[in-house]
Task: structure prediction
Amino acid sequence: MSDEELRPPPIRPSQWRAGIEAPSEEDIVSCVSCGLCLPHCPTFRLTGRETASPRGRIAAMRAVQEGQATIDDTFRTMMDECLACRACETACPSGVPFGRMIEAARAQIEPTRPLASRGPRALGLKYVLPRPWAIYAAAAGMGIAQALRLDRLGPAGARTTTPRISLPKLARPLPRTMGSGPTAALLCGCVMDVAFRDVQRDTMRAVAGSGYRAVRPRAGGCCGALAMHYGYPDAARRMARDRIAEFEDAEVVVVNSAGCSNHMKGWGHLLNDDPEWGPRAAAVASRVRDLLELDLATRSRDLGTIACHDACHHVHGQALGPDLRRVIRSVGGQPVEIPGGGRCCGAAGLYAVLQPELSAQLRRQKAAAITTTGASTVAVANPGCAIQIAAGLREISSPIRVVHPAQLIR
Result:
C-alpha cells in the first residue's frame, strides 16, 4: 500500500452547534449498525427508506459528529420523521439509548429552522406550556373556535388530531384533595387537565379509593415532556423544577399519562448537572408511579372484552404492558391483544400535526387492527394516543369506544 493509502483520514471538527445539547459520541458509537431495529421502526416499515430508520438516523448523527455533514434540510427531515417511539430501544441488543439521542439532535436542529416554523413552536413550548393560566386560556379559545366551527378553517390533519374541548367541563373546577392516607400528588399536566377532565376526576377517585390522600397541586402544570421531545431542553428543565418543588412532600407522585410518567422518571438524568436540583430531581423521580403501577382497589364487573393499546412510552419506555392487562382483569374485563400492538399509533406528541401524512397512515393501520379484535372498547392510557385512535376509528366509522383505564375503575 502507498503512503497515501496508509495515511489516516483528516480529522474534521464536529458540526454540532456549540452551547447546545448534542448526541454524545459515546451514544453514537454504541450503535453497531446491525439492523435488528429496522423491522420494529414504524417509519421504516412505512417507507422502506434507510433514512427513515434508526440506523440511518444514527449514521446521519455520526456524520455531523465527525464533520462529514452539516445540519441541513436532509438532516432535519430525517430527525423530524422519527416518532421517538423507542421501539428500536426495545429491539436493540446493544442498548443504544436512541430516545435521548433523538431529543439532543432535535435540540441542535431547532435554532436552524426558519422563523416561520420555529416561532409557533417556541411560543407553545417555551411560553404557553410552562404557564397553567396560558394553557387554560388557549384551551378556552380552542373550545370557542370548535363551538363556532371555526376549526374547520384549519388544516385537515390538525382538525382531526386536535383534542375536543368541552367549555362546561373546563369551567367546572376539579377537586383539590380527596381521600385520606399517605399523600399521593397527582400531575395536573397540560392536555390531560383541559381535554380529559373526566379522566382526571376518575384518577383522583381511583387513587383516593386505594388508600391515599389524592392531592392536586395548587399551581399544577406541564411536566416538560413535549418541550424535551421537540428541541427545548431548557424549557423542559424549568418545568421540571416547578413540578419537583410541588411534589417533594408527597409519598408518591401519580401520573395517568404514559409520556409524562416516562419523562418524569428521567428527571434525575435531566437535571444531573445541577448541584442544587439534581439530587432533588432524582429523589422525586424515584417516587413517580404511573397510575397502572399502583395497587388499585377495584370492583369487578362484567365488562366483556377490552382491547389493550400499549402506548409507546409504556411498553418501550417503562415495560408496563402487563400492568394494563392486570388493571383490566381487576375490573372484570377480558383483555385482548391488538395485532401489532406494540407499534406506534402515530400520535407521538406533536407528530400528528407536524407529520400529518405519515401519522395518518399509522392511525388508519392502528384503527383497522383494533377492529379485528372484536372488542367494543379499547383501553388507552395516554392522551395523544386516545385522540389519535379515536380519530382513526371515526375515519373508518367504527363504534369502538376509547377509554382511559381510570374510567373503568368504579
User: Anything to note?
Assistant: Residues 132-147 form the longest helix (16 residues). The mean pLDDT is 92. The longest strand covers residues 304-308. Residues 113-297 form one domain.
